[in-house]
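Supplementary Text 2. Reproducibility record for the structural model of the 330-residue chain.

All settings were left at their defaults, and a single model was retained for analysis rather than an ensemble. We include the record here because the model underlies the residue-level annotations in Supplementary Table 4.
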Amino acid sequence: MKFVEILQAKAAEMEKTIVLPEADDERMLQAAGRITETGLASIILLGNAEAISAKLNELDITPQNLTIIDPELSTYRLDFTRYYHEVRKHKGLSEDEAAVIMKDPLFFGAMLVKKGMADGMVAGAVNSTGNVLRAGFQIIGMAEGTNIVSSCFVMVKPEWDFGENGMIVFGDCAVNPQPDADQLADIAIDTADTARALCGFEPKVAMLSYSTGTSGAGPDVDKVVEATSLVKEKAPNLIVDGPLQLDAAIVPSVGQSKAPDSPVAGQANVVIFPDLDAGNIGYKLVQRLAGAEAVGPILQGMAKGVNDLSRGCSADDIVNVVAITALQCK
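Retained model, structure tokens:
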């Protein structure tokens, strides 16, 4: 069974409800039909109910386990407006401005999640990453104990001897350009949690650098040394080591040679890049040159499941991200 099929099977067992706020996009409706037909999750679509229903009928999609809410007409909007105004009035937001914002499906959808009426939200087929994150930040907020929202990719190639069961989780490859040591530690902890939830293995985390141990020196190495120490302090049960070069992290013979006493070297199934340059370049190299499947980006660090899509996504991509979001919901 392929990794995405395993994700979908696990997600179906969770019986979660996911909001799709971009229901005016046909890909979203196609995905919603597949998701509800297979029992992967229940779906809430946001937008004009009459137009959405007509389009679902045109696409021959049966609205089973599928709810349509129009943010402009919903009886929830008054309560949502009051709540949003209360938490944002210190920023100078008026109640009239809050009422306008609550007509926006992204913010309305995030409020459904905040209020427990839905478990997670998936968007980005139409909206920019910035807009999706803004709604998530302002309404849902960050998870307790973390100070950063980050991302990861699950890199999958079944024939690999590296990682675990043909998988290695890469973080952060899409969000934070220059995380400091404390942020890098949180990225490592959150990526380990994502790996555990999605991949089903116990994380062994390598904090990557151009240096293994004390083989190199400089501010960039110092940051990884400090971040590794902070991870051990914040998550004492997590198996982590660094700084490690990539080959020392995932190749057993190199790990044994360069870091023989490391609990991670040669066995890493989660790798944390020191900055976005390294992470983004790294995952694309592995995807394009090694032919690995890159599942993601998966957002992490939010209090509840929110994920961003590429605007070039397919209906299949949306189905997969909904499955991931369901598995992130606690």
